[in-house]
TrEMBL record:
Keywords: Metal-binding. Belongs to the GTP cyclohydrolase I type 2/NIF3 family. The lineage of its organism: Bacteria, Bacillati, Actinomycetota, Actinomycetes, Kitasatosporales. InterPro entries: DUF34/NIF3, DUF34/NIF3_sf. A divalent metal cation binds at H79, H80, D118, H244, E248. The keyword Metal-binding applies. The keyword Metal-binding applies. PANTHER family: GTP CYCLOHYDROLASE 1 TYPE 2 HOMOLOG, NGG1 INTERACTING FACTOR 3. Homohexamer. It comes from the Bacteria. One of its GO terms (molecular function) is metal ion binding. GO terms for cellular component: cytoplasm. This is GTP cyclohydrolase 1 type 2 homolog.
Length: 295
């Protein structure tokens, strides 16, 4: 008897199971490469469920859970963990519990790639450098277990042509997504800049490595008074401080493109989205009157 023709050709794209997508994500950002204190991996989700849409975002907050519901996504991948320090309740009376309830009610899985994505090749700081058209030379803090010397924290980069610190900051302001904070500079705005260390997210624990690298400038987020004051007193290092969310958001686009490519290779029927919702917690900014010194 001849085979009965199927309505669906054998090579037609089919939606993957969550377990298949998670295996692909773990291959990109192996969870064992996360820092000891971190909480990466799958927060909720049924491995056997089908996934047709994925939403990438920086923060696992309620706005992102609601966006996934609107989109019909069955998987959210975020950079930041929902529960970094563990919990004893997911009651919907807590804001994180409300996120969990929204996700489970709508069959949406949540997966986190945090410090394992920071140090990956390509990682969070490669995406930041790419958004700014910087040429990546090497990691700022190389991962000693990577013989190729490409993985690690932060990146040392070069500008295509020399600019002033002020020009570079203007490029950062123009290329990264807009936030209330905007961009702050420490150091001489007219100093020439050619080599730059970049680190997506909070980077003021990296000043020793930045100084040792001998770069002209350092772009990161969450810079505080004392480390900045000391760094600018000690050397002519220029500092560019952007919003934490803005420095990590380019990773969402990079990660989405990586999953898209994997999906094509497997012949998956999967749509990959990047959230454009600004989840940086700062909501407004006023420049103070710089001519008004204290009386
Ligand atoms: Zn972060």
């Amino acid at each position: 008897m001849p085979p009965v023709p199927s309505a669906v050709p054998a090579d037609a794209p089919s939606a993957p199971r969550l377990a298949d997508v998670l295996a692909a994500l773990d291959a990109l950002w192996p969870p064992e490469r996360a820092e000891q204190w971190d909480a990466v991996g799958t927060v909720c989700g049924d491995p056997g469920a089908t996934v047709t849409r994925v939403l990438f975002a920086v923060d696992p907050v309620q706005e992102i859970a609601d966006e996934a519901v609107q989109l019909g996504a069955e998987l959210i991948v975020t950079h930041h963990p929902l529960y970094l320090r563990g919990t004893t309740t997911v009651a919907a009376s807590t804001f994180k519990g409300r996120v969990v309830h929204t996700l489970i009610k709508h069959d949406i899985a949540l997966h986190v790639a945090h410090t394992n994505a920071d140090t990956a090749d390509p990682g969070v700081s490669d995406a930041l450098a790419g958004a700014l058209d910087l040429r990546v030379v090497r990691p700022l803090v190389p991962d000693p277990t990577d013989p190729a010397g490409r993985r690690g924290l932060g990146r040392i980069c070069e500008l295509d042509r020399p600019a002033t610190l002020r020009d570079f900051a203007a490029r950062v302001a123009h290329r990264l997504p807009g936030t209330a904070q905007g961009i702050r500079i420490a150091g001489d705005p007219d100093a020439p800049v050619r080599t730059i260390a970049v680190s997506g997210g909070s980077g003021d624990g990296l000043f020793d490595q930045v100084r040792a690298a001998g770069v002209d400038a350092f772009l990161t987020a969450d810079l505080r008074h004392h480390p900045v004051s000391e760094a600018t007193q000690q050397t002519a290092l220029g500092l560019v401080d952007a919003a934490h969310w803005a420095t990590e958001w380019p990773w969402c686009e990079q990660a989405a493109a990586q999953l898209d490519e994997i999906s094509d290779r497997h012949g998956w029927d999967l749509r990959v989205h990047v959230s454009k919702t600004v989840t940086d917690p700062w909501s407004a900014h006023h420049s103070s009157d710089s001519s008004g010194a204290p009386n």
